[in-house]
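User: Some background: our group keeps a shared notebook of sequences we're curious about, and every so often someone picks one and asks for a predicted structure to add to the entry. Today it's my turn. The entry only has the sequence so far, pasted here. Could you supply the structure so I can complete it?
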Amino acid sequence: MSNLNKLTIKQAIQGLKDKKFTSVELTQACLDQIDKHDSKIKAFVTVTKDAALKQAQEADKLIAKKGAQAFVLKQLLGIPYACKDNFSTYGIETTASSKILKDYIPPYESTVTQKLKNAGAVLLGKTNMDAFAHGSSTETSDFFTTHNPWNLKHVPGGSSGGSAAAVASNMCIFAIGSETAGSVRGPAAWCGITGLKPTYGRVSRYGLIAMASSTDSPGPLAKTVEDAALVLQIIAGKDELDATSSPIPTENYSQIANAKTLQGVKIGKPKSYFEIDLEPGVKDNVEKAIAKFKKLGAEIIEMDLLSPRYAIAVYTILQRSEVSSNLARLDGIRYGQTRDKFGFEARKRMMLGAYALSAGYYDAYYSKAQKVRTLIVNDFNKAFEQVDMIIGPSMPCSATVIGDAEKNAMFGELMDVLTEPSSIAGLPSISIPCGFSGDLPVGVQLIGPAFSESSLAGVAGAFESATDYHIKFPL
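Assistant: Of course. Here's the predicted structure to add to the notebook entry:
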């Protein structure tokens, strides 16, 4: 078989089970795609070629020994993936794309990557990101800017831009990202793939280099909704190493029903999410997507929801404050370089956070932001008394041109305006491709109540099975 790197997880597992190809061949196909295209796209910070091929060889040995039973023991056996460079990987450099962590080799494994390792997934390497996840374009990486595979003059989104670009360009079968306020859904939308942001606490943060501890959520970037659900199945669950991980039992996400009908599903369309300045191509495609959901049987209910603009101020204060606290540990003594290696964006955010938390301003800023956060949470709770989930654009525009972020100090917050409210409230959401604005992809998002990942995947899967946007790739 040729073009093995273009397979979905489901297709790749079936091919390995049927012995149509080996994990080594599948992994080599991804590595060849990286060799061919990554010099232009720049998705990877580190490629672990030798280690990946060794892992693939081990997977092939287990498949030869156990056959299909091997995939009962290890559900992602032999499947190559890419991981955002803010997840600690034992023995592999982990920098969060910041020079202050250059040459840092973690002495332990993050829970997410350990679970994937236990499931037999093959790590191809670590992907580029906005340094410490401070950005929405992957332009604030201290190393280089990642390019959008659909148009190299544009950004892939951020902060999980490297992971999204790697999936969209078929350099891996799936990837892992993390979201604090749009960092999974944004790149997924701008790169034309699926991005699933779980409920806060659904996936362990242990070993994830913290940005804003109260909103950080690891999640999958994949070629299909079903693939994203398969990965969530592996990485979700309570973790004794993370006190904020939820004890609520996980569901069978991997068994999503790609229903032909959405009869009985109530989807809320918040007016405020369409009243902000949307790019015409984005608005048009999202409206068409809503019409498709309606055609599939869903009831679309126009509703009022707090303007997403309120979330910008809340998120900015909370995120800066938590950044200031989290980055204080990088003192140049225990690990990392000296603090003069911090980039401009990190310094700016730490200073603003320290200001918001200082004695004279804590009540005026941080305390007030937390109160407004509660209002946003309550507003969503009220909305979900009427509807099962909420729909809207993932991003207000298609991928911006490289360099645009430098023109606006609040670029990230403005780009993430439609994802910030649900992130602040800790809610799950999924972004799926729904069309194109010019030559660039457009994403539509579904937001659900806490721990409704199965419902979101089911409804998104129904849309996916009725459309063909998920099978369109630039490379």
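Suggested note for the entry: The chain has a mean pLDDT of 95. The longest helix spans residues 23-41.
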